[in-house]
Amino acid sequence: MTTSPTSPETTALAAGDQAATIASPKVRLRRRRIVIEHPDPQAGETLLAEALGAADRDALHGLLSQLVKASAVARKPDQGTLAFMVSTLKSIAPRDSLESMLAAQMVSIQVATMRTACRLACTDDVQQQESLTRALTRLSRTFAAQIEALNRHRSNGACAITVQNLSVQDGGRAVVGNLTQHANLIAAQPGLVGAGAVLA
After folding, report:
1. 3 within domain boundaries
2. Number of domains into which the chain is organized
3. Domain span at residue 55?
4. Per-residue tens of pLDDT for the chain, all 200 residues
5. Based on the domain organization, do 68 and 146 belong to the same domain?
6. How many Cβ atoms sit within 10 Å of the Cβ of residue 90?
7. Angle at 147 between CA 141 and CA 148, to 5 degrees
8. Which of 41, 100, 158, 185 could cross-link 94 (Cys pair, CB 3.0–4.6 Å)?
9. 183: Cβ–Cβ under 8 A, 6 or more apart, which residues?
């Protein structure tokens, strides 16, 4: 027979879990309606909108409605998949509407990727295997492109390039130092030896 511990630490953990639940409301489906679980419905909407990067109530409910549709299994919304999608979206922590939409696409592509992988694992038909392999490859590439797009957006399009090779042709000029390129602008820090680039 196993008894559950009732130490002060366990009580503190339970209180912490309750606070986390209130701070980060969960989403449930009830009779085809989206319900945000929180003691104060308006505060729950506000907290969830902040967690998902939604600009306002309309954006929040639009995003949740899209996630419900993307969670569908056999044409019925799936509570477990929806909970996973919302939780993953929260962990991405979108900071604005663009990030929110991109993150929603990312979690939807992840769900579709794993469904396709499951179908691939369950089929023995060679034609289906080839078709599913192509779909799985496209979905995986799309997900990687979405991660890259999110990173680019978060870094404001800046892309740092380090040149570790120096080659100067006859008549050419070179800048020796550490070079960083940001959005087609090259800033040189002369006097630092070790990296360089050719300037025509």
Report:
1. no
2. 2
3. 16-154
4. 444 444 444 444 444 444 444 467 899 998 878 999 999 989 999 999 999 999 999 999 999 999 999 999 988 999 999 999 999 999 999 999 999 999 999 999 999 999 999 999 999 999 999 999 999 999 999 999 999 999 999 998 666 566 566 677 777 776 666 655 554 454 544 544 444 444 44
5. yes
6. 16
7. 90
8. 100
9. 157, 158, 159
DSSP 42-66: HHHHHHHHHHHT-SSHHHHHHHHHH
Helix (H, G, I), strand (E, B) or coil at 121: helix
Its pTM stands at 0.66
Burial class from Cβ neighbours inside 10 Å (0-12, 13-18, 19+) for residue 166 reads middle
* 19 φ, ψ (degrees, to nearest 5): -65, -40
